[in-house]
Amino acid sequence: MRGSKEDAVDYKFSNGDEDQQFDDDGKLKNWSFSLNESGTVWTASAHIITSIIGTGVLSLAWGTAQLGWAGGLVTLVTFSFITYYTSNLLADCYRFPDPVTGKRNHSYMEEVRANLGRVNCIACGIVQYANLSGMVIGYTISASISMVAVHKSNCFHTKGHSASCKFSNNPYMIGLGIFEIFLSQIPNFHKLTYLSTIAAIMSFGYSSIGIGLALARIISGKGGSTTLTGVEVGLDVTVADKVWRTCRALGDIAFTYSFSAVLVEIQDTLKSEPPENKVMKKANAISVFTTTTFYMMCGTLGYAAFGNDAPGNMLTGFGFYEPFWLVDLANIFIVIHLAGAYQVFTQPVYLLIESSAQKKWPNSMFVNSEYPIKIGNKTVLSLNLLRLTARTMFVVLATTLAMAMPFFNDFLALLGSIGFWPLTVYFPVEMHIAQRKIKRRSMKWCMLQLLNFLCLLVSLAAAAGSIQGVSQGLRTSKPFQYKV
């Protein structure tokens, strides 16, 4: 049964428009953390591209080098099709029981609870929020590496190529954390549209620079040695290293397609007309096609440029010297993009914390009161004490953890392996089976379970490889003392 206005708690809204306080399910729309359903296919695409094109795109040259021309291209295309297919399944489960006329599910957990029950809902929540928090840690690490790269490049340019230019990541992580504390006061996805659009443009910017530099390297005849199967056993690596690297490469590529963790929350921003699932499918198609095109160019041209010696971050392979200004620009683009993507991935976490607090303490001024900051008669910002303290504590914790474990490729692979199978494949497939009442052991049921099983194997292999890589990193570097 849908809720009613009479059942909702009476809150004061800054716009004073009582008709806008409730969505089409009669659910209270407290703008401090709920979503205003006014998004379009383009705003959804911007949010998806911001979340999907991360710095993982810069590791695709390394991933292709481990898998070779054959394995790299097949893996990229396969993951893109799987992600697109299962994302559409997830979009159809947004309303329950009917994809068009059913009741809205405002989060991934609500969607799983409606279709699969409480136990699966709890499991989904653990995986989803661990993955989102891990993404934030990974983005903090990646952004600091790019900031250090700019500092290092300018150091070499000023003091000469023989200068000792090594810098700690920690000040940059702290600086980013302080900046994110301010950005974290943006209340919800709807208010993130401009930030997501800027971040999406930045992602295209640094990807294009990487592609351009790789192409220039190939044309100049400085391309690396490539093979059909990637790094060669006996020549480049041992058999064991080849296996571990292959597993980590699968995790890296899986990571580059990870946006299911925020898909439902993005869909919750869409208007009711036309139906949200149809709009979301269009956004999925636009985003996956666009990103796969860039991924293919980054992976193939990066591999052709560096060969089997491709670095974990493609931009670092071009050195810190000339054209230093162009590499600096790409790294600045990365930092701007990650600052926006950070907020996209943390919004569901903030929503969980704040909505849970509101349910538990519905009459608390600390939880519910808004304090508008005005310029003239216009409200430019509304502060909430819970939002200020909880989000600040989250950013501080994420920054501290990032400083304690500053690994790049292996950490990306671990995040990809943790989040890819359950969030991108398992829950969408199982909800689709439940929603459409697909009979056990029917042809479609068997094919869906085969997809489930194969993706589980990929995730397990990627997790094993990334854990091995992280353990090596722990032996070779000290927490809080990482320098590049």
Automatic annotation (TrEMBL):
GO terms for molecular function: symporter activity. Keywords: Amino-acid transport, Cell membrane, Membrane, Symport, Transmembrane, Transmembrane helix, Transport. The chain crosses the membrane at residues 41-60, 67-86, 126-150, 171-188, 194-216, 285-304, 324-345, 388-405, 411-429, 450-470. It comes from the Eukaryota. Residues 38-470 form the Amino acid transporter transmembrane domain. InterPro entries: AA_transpt_TM (IPR013057). One of its GO terms (cellular component) is plasma membrane. It is found in: Cell membrane. The keyword Transmembrane helix applies. It holds the Pfam family Aa_trans. GO terms for biological process: amino acid transport. Belongs to the amino acid/polyamine transporter 2 family. Amino acid/auxin permease (AAAP) (TC 2.A.18.2) subfamily. This is Amino acid transporter transmembrane domain-containing protein. It comes from Chenopodium quinoa (Quinoa).
